[in-house]
Amino acid sequence: MTDTITIRRPDDWHVHLRDGAMLQAVAAFTAKQFGRAIVMPNLSPPVTSAADAAAYRDRIMAALPTGSDFTPLMTCYLTDDTDSDDIAAGHAAGIFTAAKLYPANATTNSAHGVTDVAHIMPVLERMQQIGMPLLVHGEVTDGDIDIFDREAVFIERILEKLIAKLPDLKLVFEHITTEQAVRFVDSAGPNVAATITPHHLLINRNAMLVGGIRPHAYCLPVAKRELHRLALRKAATSGSPKYFLGTDSAPHEIHAKESACGCAGIFNAPYALESYAAVFDEEGALDRLEGFASLHGPKFYGLPVNEATVRLERRENPVPDDIQSGGFKLVPFHAGSALEWQIL
Ligand code: DOR
Ligand code: ZN
User: Fold this and answer.
1) pLDDT digits (tens, 9 = 90+) for 96-110
2) What is the predicted pLDDT for the residue at 1?
3) Which is the CATH superfamily of the domain at 4-343?
4) For the chain, does the N or the C end have fewer beta carbons within 10 angstroms?
5) What is the pLDDT confidence band of residue 5, given thresholds at 50, 70 and 90?
């Protein structure tokens, strides 16, 4: 049995670092685990210009503990009014690594998102031309579509058509949750990839609903049936360069989670790599963890891999019921249980 593994320092290709006091409270957890992270732009108001993104990047850098070895990679929040020249200029200036498509009202702070992909076709054409990645929250928002079907319907109604029109667009299907998404990504070209969260690899919808309603297991896209979780585990551990690590760590204040209308998001940053290690261990694929966590993402984004390494050891790693940080009480993923791996 393998009891220690050493891999290149991983990156998180999808994280919510928030702003203000919450940013101060959570930034260190991501910076400790990861060399770089793709930072989501769904602040209020959203990050829609290169100037916003540069200022946000400065606030993130200022929130890091001294001596952190961490680089935030910034994204632009697409709206119906995004201008293709602005996007291209921000990308050329090295401020925007990618742009994020939130369908309007799909999730937290997405009210300013895109109401119809047709409105941003000139932007997407330009992104295809310059090789700038489009990051997609892949859920339809139509009231008549069941919440558990919203990702699968998005593939049929939006993604398949988009890729047919723009076959060379670099596209990351974010936080995939279904076997349909795995099939779509597998059958697309090398310009189409996906991130997978630790929680979608570890829980199915029962975690949210059995024995009581459990708001800390609620996120969007919502966890699906077991068969989907198994498809995601197979994809993540397959060794395919199309799949890479993206935690979607999304902290909310405890009262916003434990509420009559609780916010979507799982705060998994404190134990993220240990969570993924558990999955790869259970699947007998620890030798593929480094590809998923540290190699496939940089390759897709055209960035160098990290030089530093990190060592994980098999040992009991208890997770507290909550974490007090920066004046907030946050409930982490795995709260009150224990992981079998620990970062040394
Ligand atoms: O669970 C989620 N939380 N999914 C998202 O898409 C957004 C995120 C957040 O910002 O809270
Ligand atoms: Zn997210």
Assistant:
1) 999 999 999 998 899
2) 80
3) Metal-dependent hydrolases (3.20.20.140)
4) N
5) very high
Averaged over 319-326, what is the pLDDT? 98
> Is 251 close to ligand 1, i.e. is its CB under 6 Å away?
no
Ligand 1 atom closest to Cα of 265? Answer: 1
At 303, list the tokens: 């960035």
Q: Using the atom order of ligand 1, give the atom closest to the CA of residue 251.
A: 11
pTM greater than the 0.90 cutoff: yes
Which residues 6+ apart lie within 8 Å of 211 measured at CB?
Answer: none
Q: Evaluate: CB of 42 within 6 angstroms of ligand 1.
A: yes
Closest CA to 155 of 173, 142, 169: 173
Q: Does residue 2 register a pLDDT over 90?
A: no
| 26: DSSP letter | H
Which has the higher per-residue pLDDT, 108 or 205? 205
Dist. CA 279 → ligand 1 center (Å) = 22
Percent above pLDDT 70 for the chain: 100
- Give me 298's structure tokens: 């940089």
* pLDDT tens by residue, 166-176: 999 999 999 99
Q: Does the C-beta of 177 come closer than 6 Å to ligand 1?
A: no
Residue 75: predicted pLDDT: 98
How many A from CA of 269 to the centre of ligand 2? 12
For residues 94 and 73, is the Cβ–Cβ distance under 8 A?
no
Q: Ligand 1 centre and the CA of 123: distance in Å?
A: 24
Distance in angstroms (rounded) separating the CA atoms of residues 218 and 262: 8
Spatial CA neighbour of 206 closest among 198, 217, 197: 217
What does the pLDDT average to over 194-221?
98
Supply the residues annotated as catalytic: 248
Nearest to 331, CA basis, from 260, 264, 252, 219? 252
